[in-house]
Write a structure and sequence with these properties.
37% helix, homodimer, 16 strands, alpha+beta, five-stranded antiparallel beta sheet
Chain lengths: 423, 423
Amino acid sequence: MAMNEQILVATGGAAPAENFGTRIIELAHHLAQWSEMPEGLMCTYFSPVHKAVAIQLREWMLSAGLEAKIDPVGNVIGRYPSAEPGAKTLILGSHYDTVANAGHFDGRLGILTALVVAEHLQRTGQRLPFHLEVIGFSEEEGVRFSAPYLGSGAIAGHFDEDALARRDASDVSLATVLRKEGVELPAIQALARRPETLRGYLEVHIEQGPVLLSRGLPVGVVSSITGSARYRIAIQGVAGHSGTVPMPLRRDAATAAAEIVLAVERRCRAGTNLVGTVGQLNVPHGLINVIPGSCEMSLDVRSVDDATRSAAIHDIFAAIEEITGRRRVTASIKEIARHRASPCAPAMQAALGQAVARAGVEPFYLPSGAGHDAEMFAGVTDIGMLFVRCGNGGISHSPLETVTAEDADVGARVLLDTLVHLN
Amino acid sequence: MAMNEQILVATGGAAPAENFGTRIIELAHHLAQWSEMPEGLMCTYFSPVHKAVAIQLREWMLSAGLEAKIDPVGNVIGRYPSAEPGAKTLILGSHYDTVANAGHFDGRLGILTALVVAEHLQRTGQRLPFHLEVIGFSEEEGVRFSAPYLGSGAIAGHFDEDALARRDASDVSLATVLRKEGVELPAIQALARRPETLRGYLEVHIEQGPVLLSRGLPVGVVSSITGSARYRIAIQGVAGHSGTVPMPLRRDAATAAAEIVLAVERRCRAGTNLVGTVGQLNVPHGLINVIPGSCEMSLDVRSVDDATRSAAIHDIFAAIEEITGRRRVTASIKEIARHRASPCAPAMQAALGQAVARAGVEPFYLPSGAGHDAEMFAGVTDIGMLFVRCGNGGISHSPLETVTAEDADVGARVLLDTLVHLN
């Protein structure tokens, strides 16, 4: 892997303020060469591409002077030990799997930022009062098995055993895939860290939204990771001929759904730190000349405040009842997921915020609307997250996702400064 | 075909007021035995099932004492000649093809009503001042080739030559199917009747809507066949993460589509003799956690008054422009069909209305929101239509479609009475 080492060697020795960012961007583009798609980036759990990326990450960790290994579920772990053997461990993590047609930075920015910072500490001989682990989690997006957080869940002790039965698009179960790798459930359970051995968990991640961009800030401190509730809603009306049923006699499932879509939008616009989305909307077997007899939709409501989210859902359900009653249609609502919000530890927020200020940037605290690996460690240890500004209007999960080298550099310097000030 | 003849013989000799309806219902159920679906009725153009139905109709016409034949495009034509050889021809028509999972009466009620009436005239020796033709049109629904009115279009001189290139679900073109039957375009063109040979066109059809049901009337006289305009609309917004993009910054294609759906409904509710339907509504590749970047929808607007329809479409397009502009999304609109309204001839409406009154029923005039074979003859000869009440809330194109024997009987008696009073 001469070329990769060359990347590290070529820039690793220069002053960090000049070079962290450029190198992070270079490494991210380099990792994107392995993809399951001919055009665009895709890297899903335990594909050949995924394994190649893991091997590359381990090589870079070794080159950076870390102890490095790939664990049974595919997490790549680089360790920079403390001078005190009995010290606790601080984890710097994020994920290296991607969605389909992904950007180069979602997940990977956090691993690479941690990598260059750990390498800097090792090269400059700065020892910390805790062991530092850089972890590239193998799975966060849930693309292949519709089971997210497989990597971070295992380390945090939250591995979802129900996920073993889930099947990929080729009808192969996760259990089968793991068995082929020689991995059984007890080995996964053994990956879980004991909370008393952990000093904390920090994650750098692109914002995946436009807030920092609109405020002109390179980084921001995450206050809380949003809680979410997801539903599938099926509206049942009465089909009819589009030409023969007068408007007042109709029981149109799609017009009812349209009112619900707008009710969701109106209610969530009225709230603070609240978003609601109907991402799926479909009249099954719809015909141009048939009044829709049924309509299916999804609902995703998120807030960093659980009470805010619950109140919004209560109001949305009341609106659905009013709309369907008035329109003489019915709605069946099925909850498919609910996650409480995960607040970041005040001490970690303060530590990150002070480092941001020392970097000459106004400390700004914002909630995370997306879920992140950090969630898995909430309740296990103190968690903290630093967002780096996303270009291009905040687009993510897209080839249009961008981060500038300057912003990536600020992120790395803030992370380094946070670590050297943390007890 | 002993059994079929038995049906005719068993009931054909009794008093018409008692038996037309029962017999029509029996014959309709009998025809439904031939189907392309194991459960439910389906009979599409030139399938083996379709040919079996044509042969049965011809047999029944022969048994009824009519001259009968099947023409090159599959129309089944039964002729009861006038005493005057040089007389004009009055056509009684409707179609015998069906949609998928159809009811037993859409189209066929009109053929069978005409059949029993013509048989009655023949048996009782009543000659008319015009030749009477009972025609079972082979194709009206457009199911197999997305090309409706193939049968009636040929007779009316409106055969759509572009339809020859259309292909069915097995990728076989209509031209290929006709060639296998030994039918070439000149033979189809030769089926067109010269307008000066026609006395008029009358069609009995189920209403396919709830208006007669809600008014408690067994039959109604059609005033006009609706005109329609159909569009495909594609909304383009910007996709985004459902958790990270604040509500005010979104450019959600589905919420824009929802507003358009409700604008169509609101505008068409406000009109008279106006209906508007969004029958297809879909977020392509929608995901529960992605803000819809695009949304596709159909639009079908109908009115018996062309100016009413045009004004509504104008207002709907203005609403689309306002909605998409305000929401910073775009809409592309493609017209896929436009038909002018076809008014029924005042003389035919009057003739039918007077017969309705003589049957002891309040004459009621209503527009047809659905298209019918009669449309093909508008502008060629005087057209008239009689609707028979549809049960079950007016449902059609469904196994739930019903007509009572009593109502079918009123329909047949009114048709017979209209014919004997027509010069």
